[in-house]
Structure formats: C-alpha cells, structure tokens
Amino acid sequence: RQLQLELLGEVPVLSIRTEPLQNPVNRLAKRLFDLTFSSLFLLTIFPFMYLIVGLIIKITSPGPIFFKQERNGENGKIFKCYKFRSMRVNKDSDKVQATLNDPRKTRLGNFMRKTSIDELPQFFDVLCGSMSLVGTRPPTLDEYNQYESHHKRRLSMKPGITGLWQVRGRSNIEDFEEVVRLDVQYIDNWTLWEDIRILFKTVWVVFAGKGAK
Q1: Which residues pair with 50 in a beta bridge?
Q2: Helices 24-44 and 192-208 meet at what angle, rounded to 10?
Q3: Residue 9 CA to chain centroid, in angstroms?
Q4: C-alpha 159: how far from chain center
Q5: What is the pLDDT of residue 102?
Q6: pTM of the prediction?
Q7: Which of these, 171, 158, 160, lies nearest to 205 by C-alpha position?
Q8: CB of 87 within 8 A of CB of 109?
C-alpha cells in the first residue's frame, strides 16, 4: 500500500493506493511469465548470440566478454547486473552521460548499445529473480544515493530489461522526473497484457534504433 498526498479539487487529502503487484496472484503470474520466456531465450537464442558476440568482443578488444556492475533493485536491494562488455577494460560502461560516439566504447560497442545487444545477459538476472523482463531500469549505486524520497518508489518492484521509459523514448528522455513519472504510471497500472505490449513495442523501438546511446 502507498500513502499519497493528492488534491481533491483544491483540498489536499491523503489517499491509500494498492499496487497491482502487491497481490500475490499477480506477482506469481509475472514471475512465471519471466521464468518461461527467459528460460526459452537462454536455451535457444542466447547460446548463438554468446558465440557470435563473445567472439567479436574478444577479437576487437582485450578483456572479458561480460561486464558486471552493482545496481539497486527492488526496494533498494543490491544485485549484480550483467551485460556484454561494450567499453574498454577499466572503463565504466554504464555512465548515463556517454554519447553515441563515446571514445571509451569498443569498436563493437556503438552497435551493441544502439541495438541493446549488450543487455541480453540480463536474462540471467531475470532467471535468478533479481530482475523482470519488464519493469523500471535499475540505477547504479551512485545514482540511487542521490535519489529523493519520491524517486525510490520506482524501485517498489523488480527492475526490468525494458519498460515504459524505453518504449517512450529511451535516452531521448533527459528529464529524470519524467522517467520517474512513467515508472510510477507503469507500477500503478500493471497488467500482464501491458507487459506483453511493452515487450512487442520494445522489439520495434530497438530495430528502429530510437533513442539509443
């Protein structure tokens, strides 16, 4: 339950909202959905992507295939977020101020970022339960430490590989308050059908290359 201050006309009142994912049945449905599709992806498509992308990463840039970073997940809990490495070794590959032609990126890095291929290993995080297919993006520890109290509500559920922020503009949305608004909108109005719609729209946004950095 969330206690919120709202306006009734011009009179401020306190209201109690119940998020859909606080219902155990809804949480179970979302978890089963995540388990089913993350397992299918990791058993079928991912092995081929790993061989191809991993080989190119090793050829074009010395260092590990995967990049891992601590992120804040549901209710601020810290977990390891995995990606294909798109930056040179010892360069932080997930700074939000990175540009499309950031010199820290490997030769393959720009393409991976634009197509979101670098995020495919996060399906392991989904399988393990740290993330969901659809949700809010997990902040870095530094970002989380700068949050004001109302920002933390976006972490009242598991973070996702994709979400409303991604399909509404991705990196083109520079106002963090707008990101928070979209995240809260998703949390308050969650349905399994909305997750499916966002997943399909994510495929279109990625192929169109909209808003990627």
Answers
A1: none
A2: 40
A3: 36
A4: 6
A5: 61
A6: 0.82
A7: 171
A8: yes
Dig out the tokens for 30 from the structure.
């979302």
CA distances from 177 to 47, 129, 148, 154 (A): 38, 27, 11, 11
Tokens 């808003």 sit at which residue? 211
Q: Which residues pair with 84 in a beta bridge?
A: 66
Q: How many other CB atoms are found less than 10 A from the CB of residue 113?
A: 22
What is the C-alpha separation between 91 and 106, in angstroms, rounded? 10
What DSSP designation does 117 have? G
Identity at 111, one-letter amino acid code: F
Alpha-carbon span 85 to 88, nearest angstrom:
8
- The residue ranges of the chain whose pLDDT is under 50 are 7-9, 13, 15, 93-98, 100
Q: Which of 169, 39, 50, 200 is nearest to 118 (CA)?
A: 50
Closest CA to 167 of 128, 136, 132: 136
The tokens for 57 are 């990463």
The answer to whether 112 touches 56, Cβ cutoff 8 Å, is no
Q: For residue 16, what are the β-bridge partners?
A: 3
pLDDT digits (tens, 9 = 90+) for 80-135: 999 999 888 765 544 434 454 566 777 788 888 888 899 999 999 999 999 999 99
Amino acid in position 102: D
